[in-house]
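Interim report, section 4.2 (structural modelling).
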Amino acid sequence: MDAHLTIPSPAPGFLLANERTESSFEEIPVIDFSDASSKNVTKRRALADRIRDACVNVGFFYVKNHPITEATIADTIRAAGDFFALPTPTKLALDIHKSANFKGYTALLGENTDPTGRGDLHEGFDLGWEQQGDGPMTGVNVWPLEADLPGFRDRVLAYYRQAVEFGQSLFPLFALALDLPENFFDDKTTKPAAIMRLLHYPPQRPAVDDDGRIIGIGAHTDYECFTILWQDAVGGLQVQNAEGKWIDAIPIPGTFVINLGDQFARWTNDVFKSTVHRVTNRSGRERYSMPLFFGTDYNVRLEPLPSCVSPEYPAKYEVVTAGEYVKRRLEETYAHSKAD
Ligand SMILES: O=C(O)CCC(=O)C(=O)O
Ligand SMILES: [Fe+2]
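Predicted structure of the assembly:
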């Protein structure tokens, strides 16, 4: 029998010993993933320990030595550039507001991630698994016509497939980091919610946008379990520590940024941090990024793990399904630009 399956379940409240209330981190750790699929459980555990430390204290970490090829990344970013260079009416034909499951194009200021803001200065293109069924968020993607952008769908899906595989390989590591059997998430991620975005941030125009209420993406937490984010070399992503200070997540070539989202905060009763972040593009250059948001299957209930609850630290969140939760958050984000 594989060694990892013999790990006993942690005692109730066990993980609360890792809780740090004052996570005033000054930098974001870089974690080497060379051992992620090592056959040696001791090596996988050592990696999971570093992941747990980052999840408890920061909620963000960089991954180096990841499995996604640079050629695929470069081609997808070129495809994103081609897409955003399409005429506005062609992009607006794919308007996300027309889609029941939040797929397609978001125009500049079409989202307002921080309710105190006036809209986000980015445009986006969202896609996901083409899941059949009538649950929230299931359904098809919305692609540009092949004649408008030959090859776009195949180029984007080439990245999507690699990134989904990478994301699926992270669930066992997060399980180990939570002292759970590595297969804990297997039956909860049979059709993993994997929403990908291509994002384009034009440079902020100081005179017009700099009342501070229109920035690239307003301060927010992500909605799912974790996000795999590729960012280009322009910079502008910032992460907020417990003192409210913004820490730059500077671009590091050859890495991905991974951050936790609210589903993991709910699973772990906030032992794992879903950390607030934002993007401000004052570089004078166009910025591109690609987040991929990983959640559980949409019918999974977000119940706190027993190891993260105690009489002194009771469950904080109402239990909802992952699908209900994500849909509710997306509706809030797009409400301000929705035509009645
Ligand atoms: O573009 C980035 O670097 C971050 C994007 C982000 O935070 C998001 O889409 O949730
Ligand atoms: Fe985010």
